[in-house]
Amino acid sequence: MTSIAHPELEGLGTYEYGWADPDQAGASARRGLNEEVVRDISAKKAEPEWMRDLRLKALKLFDKKPMPAWGADLSGIDFDNIKYFVRSTEKQATSWEELPEDIKNTYDRLGIPEAEKQRLVAGVAAQYESEVVYHQIREDLEQQGVIFLDTDTALKEHPELFQEYFGTVIPAGDNKFAALNTAVWSGGSFIYVPKNVHVEIPLQAYFRINTENMGQFERTLIIVDEGAYVHYVEGCTAPIYKTDSLHSAVVEIIVKKNARCRYTTIQNWSNNVFNLVTKRAVAYEGATMEWIDGNIGSQVTMKYPAVYLMGEHAKGETLSIAFAGEGQHQDTGSKMVHCAPNTSSTIISKSVARGGGRASYRGLVQVQEGASHSKSTVKCDALLIDTVSRSDTYPYVDVREDDVEMGHEATVSKVSEDQLFYLMSRGLDEDEAMAMIVRGFVEPIARELPMEYALELNRLIELQMEGAVG
Amino acid sequence: MTKFEIRGLRADVLIGAEERQEILKGVDLTINSGETHAIMGPNGSGKSTLAYAIAGHPKYEITDGEVLLDGENVLEMGVDERARAGLFLAMQYPVEVPGVSMSNFLRSAVTAVRGEAPKLRAFSKELQEAMKGLSIDPSFAARGVNEGFSGGEKKRHEILQLELLKPKVAILDETDSGLDVDALKVVSEGINRARATGEIGVMLITHYTRILNYVKPDFVHVFAHGQVAESGGPELAEVLEAEGYERFVKAGA
């Protein structure tokens, strides 16, 4: 234990979802992006004109916008080499049996049909490449008026909701990757929960990239009407390829008066995926928005789920956890914007870095003029497993009102020799001891996850810690 | 029947990259199961170093000698292997492991040491009884390991582990320090329950004779300047109580 550097640690070796399935659709898909590609996507989806025009406008914005000059190194992204649209099946399935064999096998191996069978979820969506290939929602919810559809279908069936809400929380020109998503978006989830309806068990979506150099650009829009509640859970994986893929999603959420929305993500992309996601919610009077954001995989992640607190007594909360292993940079955090009096926000961020990985917390708390009596608490804890890994904290605070309460706390700790010694002196081997310390560190967040995700997280920690210590 | 032998043990404390200092200067001691040996000595004599060096703390490096548990050289084992071989160290300052519940920790430790996971219900019952014996509130099982525990609570928790892990050799490092009379009694009863099996050898490290009123030693050793300076029966403790350690401090100076 005198050497706390653990060079033999290899995150890639432990990635379990790295297999690739046969890839006919992906092989024939074209690379690169221009107006023709965007028109083609829109035509294939037989979209209304306004959506096509919005896409084209967004493409122009994408071309104009500079790459972010801050955050992680994005120089590895080659926009000309990416496949922007891959259609893997002609028809969406409503039972797992209907899916093409290879896709069905993928979801079997990921355990998704099993979860549905056991009624752990109220609805399931599975997106494979660019489009949602499977969709199901429990009948009782449908009868209560809950809409849970893939975004493409929802656009056809509920154009009025799209005209009203699409692109209102995150406009096309918000940032370069939001523009890109708006230009080429495909798939994603659409949820509408009517007034006072509580969806007690989570709706779940599963995202899978199979094609090499694929770009996945799902678009999610969630509207929680007054007094309603929904919990949406998404998981993400991809095969391991030599060259990179891009995942650039946009998630817009509207939480109306006294409603509550919880959005849980466990992102476990393989280590060749650039994961650049814009997630933002608006919370109206008395509403609560909770982001639970787990970033375990990917090469680079830049993601800062945001809540705009628009009405009095609105609440925003982000619990985030990031693991950065060898070759990984997790640049994650949260953004809370207080626009009304008596609003409150909490950000709790935990990160674990090992094997030379880098975990950065980047967050903004903004209190606008007039948002008096607002409260905000930010707490960031970083745990370093060895001496070659890195942790940074970039907390930005912008307060334009006098009467507010702000708290900020940040800690960086190392796994101590004494903790390891203590656990090992009770018979636990070094890997077990390390995993136990890390599990304890993330426990405050793990306990907020649905049971099967908490177990999955624990299992991932154990895998990541195997051979983590020398 | 277990035989625990410390032979000619020398050890350095590692202070920095270049700096080290010899603390143990040839320790010889044999403990058989069923025996309790009190190791007494002035502050800074190397008592705790002896405990941690035997357990394998990375801050200490053994430079000579051997430690045998039934003939097996403990020093060639990793820290965790020593524990699984039957060695236990009750620490003076056990560390906090935040977020890990006591019950999870104890069950993991018991699983590791016994070589198989105990049946959940049987273990739960065993744990509850052991906690009751040490007057530990049942709510402790859900708390983080040593998290926010008082000194006395930490000590009780160490003895709880002693009772659950049932080692062949237990080294108790100043388990009596910082305990009031009531807590000392409770902790001593725990140690005596573990001793009652007759299958454990105990090395009881202490500065004061107070705990020896509750945990009766078979042998008393005076530790000074990194060595056993004098050995005797329980009567030696009485001499120390009357005369202090002065004689031994001077002798080696």
From TrEMBL, chain A:
InterPro entries: Fe-S_cluster_assembly_SufBD, SUF_FeS_clus_asmbl_SufB, SUF_FeS_clus_asmbl_SufBD_core, SUF_FeS_clus_asmbl_SufBD_sf, SufBD_N. Residues 207-441 form the SUF system FeS cluster assembly SufBD core domain. Residues 141-204 form the SUF system FeS cluster assembly SufBD N-terminal domain. This is Iron-regulated ABC transporter membrane component SufB. Pfam families: SUFBD_core (PF01458), SufBD_N (PF19295). It comes from Marinactinospora thermotolerans DSM 45154. One of its GO terms (biological process) is iron-sulfur cluster assembly. Belongs to the iron-sulfur cluster assembly SufBD family. NCBIfam families: sufB (TIGR01980). Coiled coil: none annotated.
TrEMBL record, chain B:
Residues 9-250 form the ABC transporter domain. It comes from the Bacteria. The keyword ATP-binding applies. Gene3D superfamilies: P-loop containing nucleotide triphosphate hydrolases. InterPro entries: AAA+_ATPase, ABC_transporter-like_ATP-bd, FeS-cluster_ATPase_SufC, P-loop_NTPase. Belongs to the ABC transporter superfamily. Ycf16 family. This is Iron-regulated ABC transporter ATPase subunit SufC.
